[in-house]
Amino acid sequence: MIHIKDNIFHLNTQNTSYIFAVTEHGDLQHLYYGDKISEQTDYNAFFEKRSMLLVSALYPENDIAYGIDAMQFEYSAFGGGDRRENACTINCGEALCTFTFVGYTLLSQPPARPDFAQAHSGDGCLCVLLRDEHTETELRLYYQHFEKCDVITRYAEIKANKNAVGVDSLMSMQLDLPMGKYKCITFDGAWARERFKHEQKLTAGKFVCDSQSGASGAWHNPFVMLAEKNADNFSGESYGFNLIYSGNHREVFEVSPYGGIRVLSGISPKGFRFNLLKNDTFFTPEAVLTYSKNGYNGVSHNMHDFVKRNILPKQWAFKQKPVLLNSWESVYFDITEEKLCELADRAAEIGAEMLVIDDGWFGKRNDDTSSLGDWQENREKFPGGIKSVTDYVHKKGLKLGIWVEPEMISRKSNLFELHPDWALGSENGRKILGRSQYILDLSRSEIQDFLIKTVCSVIKESGADYVKWDFNRMFSDFTSVETPIYEVQHSYICGLYRILSEITSKNPNVLFELCASGGARFDLGMLCFMPIGWVSDNTDVLSRALIQEGTSYGYPISVMCNHISAVPNHQTKRITTLEARSGVASFGVLGLQYDLTKLPKEELNYLKYCIAEYKRMRLFITDGCFYRLTDGFEENFTAWQLVSADKNTSYVILFQKLFFPVSQLPKLKLFGLSSDVAYTVDITGLKVSGEVLMKHGLLPLQNYQGNEQSINGHSLTDFSAVFYQLKALEEEK
Ligand code: GLA
Q: How far apart are CA 633 and CA 137, in angstroms?
């Protein structure tokens, strides 16, 4: 619901309100974002009382009490007196543009932004128009509200009217909140440890996360949170912010010297400048904002709901995904038609539903030094072509997936011989290699067309049901033979979105998985086209628990692809139990990457059992509710819970980091069950009411025998997991 009265704008969702107003000087003043407030409220209470020179020394003529760099604004421009980090810097040559309110419109649909990945439209869209007096440059701020998910989205548009202007920065959103004790929560890391959670107390100055890697990146995910000092997973006012974008991004938390906090999110201004000629427009990507008074889990639930309902391709969002066997850690580059068919046999025996042919099937690709760009099957490895493997697996009732990395070009490839200028990077300057490859210049439409054609023909010729789309090096050079240097990065992402939009709409029944050296481009922009993503190359239980848990703050578990892999683990050399490996992988889209032809019978049997169990659990993954019951391995344990939409079934996993003799497993307070229903807990055999499970908790009932710790025959060691299944008694009858 959008309520507008006397130039006060009040956006309501089911449980939240967002309020701002036009001031007497034509600025947009932010008034409130938080727990829902009725539209009959007395808005006077929200305005700062200004009767004397405030702390700030900058003010408009004749209004000494209007402290420009202390007030809460909706969107402030550099050069307008607000000395905090600004939402935009628009340069018209001799001056910097500043904007004042002109009017607003309510739109039934947000304007089409063909270059972008965008959320489906919300329950209403408000467009506020501001103008720079001198140049007549227009700034439009768009707000959409998504009632059920408690989400507001925002983006901005700039239009050059009289003069040409340079857009040096244009963020998607700015949020100014009043003085308080805040912390920010970010999800950071590197290859093989993506999205570890970090909390920082915000006291003075700025805390900035950004990506210069040409992708959202593994260093900092664009999903970030702001919360009151004492908030945790279960309580406290918390905000979540994300960006529907896959390129360079920047998130800023600034504590003003006067105590207020500013949050900004948008495209990173570093190396960015768009020159707009008269009548040109530029849109920012869409920012996603949510608030919950119920702590981090509350924020996550809103984000999960929003992603499932409004980001993921509609035909896939609530569909169950196949259990797959991927060839990568099974055989790496030693793939042959024969070996893949053997793997498919084993996969079918244990109940897997798809075989994925990873890297190494094309060109002369026997290691990672060549052939990206030459997307023709290697006939020495595949005498009958990929199609003959597809036919083989289809006959067995399995599906076939194929790996591609279309945005890249190997230094050693026929494509590079033919088109050296297609790679980004200067002819004369330093051209930097990453994994022996360059990045194709996707800002050029000729190259976009080539990729659309090439990937569609790989899909057609192989008969693939699934595509794993990889991106394995980060940007270094921003030089294109066609596109101005400061426009390359953003134009690349717009080009990528055009390619993805065409390929996915031409192949609506093909399931796409996003991937980037593991999880280095795990973001809402990619998820608009690809409903699932490879979370990390690290499949070790301990690392994975932290990576999946970190990812779960902003993204639903139904989009996270997790694989059971061999021990010692290929990334950490850690040895963990199969129970723990399958337990952690089951909280998402389950797969395996594992040479099944070398496994003993008992292990195959156990995998068969795990897959059968997972298929039962899978029914609840897309529309169930996920809770973090602890925070990281704070007390040696971390635990998660999944509750089915009808509340009749719940799965709980408890990870133990290290084993200590005669130690206690923690009691876990559960969430989201029906209070008045009794549940059976499989592993302990107890029957307990929902009320007791939620108020008192789930007791682990472990046995101790000297230095052995076990639950019902399941022994617990270092890096082990206990898996509980709860069923409503009514259901069981
Ligand atoms: C990346 C991916 C892996 C695998 C390899 C293949 O690292 O994250 O899963 O596909 O590329 O080269």
A: 52
Please enumerate in sequence order all residues whose Cβ is within 8 A of that of 600, keeping only pairs 6 or more positions apart, or say none.
Answer: none
Radius of gyration of the chain (CA): 27
Which amino acid, one-letter code, is at 314?
Answer: K
Element (H, E) at 341: helix 337-349
Tens digits of residue pLDDT in 45-95: 998 766 655 566 788 988 888 889 889 999 999 999 999 999 999 999 889
pLDDT at 704 exceeding the cut of 70: no
Catalytic: 449?
A: no
Ligand 1, atom 12: nearest CA belongs to which residue? 359
Q: Which two tokens stand for residue 452?
A: 């659309």
| Tokens (6 digits) for 675 | 């209070």
Q: Would you say 204 and 238 are in contact if contact means Cβ atoms under 8 Å apart?
A: no
Identify the helix (H) or strand (E) that includes residue 317: helix 314-317
C-beta of residue 540 within 8 angstroms of C-beta of residue 479 = no
Amino acid at 173: M
Which tokens hold the place of 430? 């330093």
Q: Specify whether the CB–CB gap between 77 and 68 falls below 8 A.
A: no
Q: What would you measure as the largest C-alpha separation in the chain, in angstroms? A: 85
Active-site residue among 150, 374, 441, 470? Answer: 470
Which residue has the CA at smallest separation from atom 7 of ligand 1?
517
**In this structure, which residue's CA is closest to atom 5 in ligand 1?**
359
What's the rounded Cα separation, in Å, for the pair 246 and 266? Answer: 11
β pairing state of 399-404 and 354-357: parallel
The Cα–Cα gap between 563 and 221 comes to 22
Q: What's the token pair of residue 106?
A: 């309510």
Whole-angstrom distance, CA of residue 297 vs CA of residue 227: 12
The beta strand positions in 525-586, using DSSP E, are: 532-534, 560-565
Q: What is the mean pLDDT of the chain?
A: 95
Q: Is 27 a catalytic residue?
A: no
Give the best-scoring range by mean pLDDT among 659-668, 688-697, 709-718: 688-697
281, β-bridge pairs: 159
CA nearest 521: which of 112, 115, 88, 117? 117
In eight-state DSSP terms, residue 407 is: T
For residue 108, give the amino acid letter: S
- Rounded CA-CA distance 154/141 in Å is 7
Give distance in angstroms: CA of 518 to centre of ligand 1. Answer: 6
pTM exceeds 0.70 for this model? yes
CA 367–ligand 1 middle distance (angstroms): 12
Question: Distance between CA atoms of 406 and 376, rounded to whole angstroms?
Answer: 12
Contact 517, 471 (CB under 8 A): yes
Instruction: Find all residues with CB under 8 Å of 132, minimum gap 6, and list them.
Output: 90, 92, 97, 98, 99, 138, 139
Residue 552, helix vs strand vs coil: helix
Q: What is the DSSP letter of 300?
A: H
Give ∠ CA 329-547-643 in degrees, rounded to 5. 105
